[in-house]
Amino acid sequence: MKTKDRIVYAALELFNDNGERSITTNHIAAHIDISPGNLYYHFRNKQEIVREIFKLYSAELIERFTPLQGQYESLTLLKHYLDSIFTLMWRYRFFYANLPDILQRDDQLHAEYIAVQDKLQANLINIIRAFVEMDLLDIAEQDMQKTATTLHIVASSWLAYRSAMSPKTRITESVIHQGVLQIISIVKPTATATGYEQLQLLEEGVRAMHA
Which region is the signal sequence (predicted)? Predict the structure, then answer.
């Protein structure tokens, strides 16, 4: 792996485990046993590393939430999107947990974030529309934007919410599973009979993971 990539993945690991604010470029350099000067050859400051991590996150986010083409079983599709929510929240948990602060410190990153989220929102509406066409959800066309926004709000703010509700909250896989359950609870009232049964199966599977 190239040194630049090692720096990025080391930073991601340290940010997730300790919080982005408490980690310096010196911590990152020491973690992969390189000199601070070597790190600065690739990145001028920590903010540039955060932006590079955001590029990874954005690419994975759009890839995972691009409506899938071809014939898939409805349960497979539902599981794919729920698994994607969990994976992204866990893999980039430092970003979700402290999103407003990170964005407010970097106008360039904030602008990039908004552009990516606008694209995500359009994809979410298309995904919802596909589930309506598969007779899993019963949502009117005029309500799809509102539903997509609600799901987006919960997914993007869940970790910050949990952290705010307790001074001792530690982000674990269980905390993220609870966020996935919250998302399922939002979708359930809009489900058809078939969709409700499938969401119930997925909900039981998530609960079993942290029982």
Answer: none
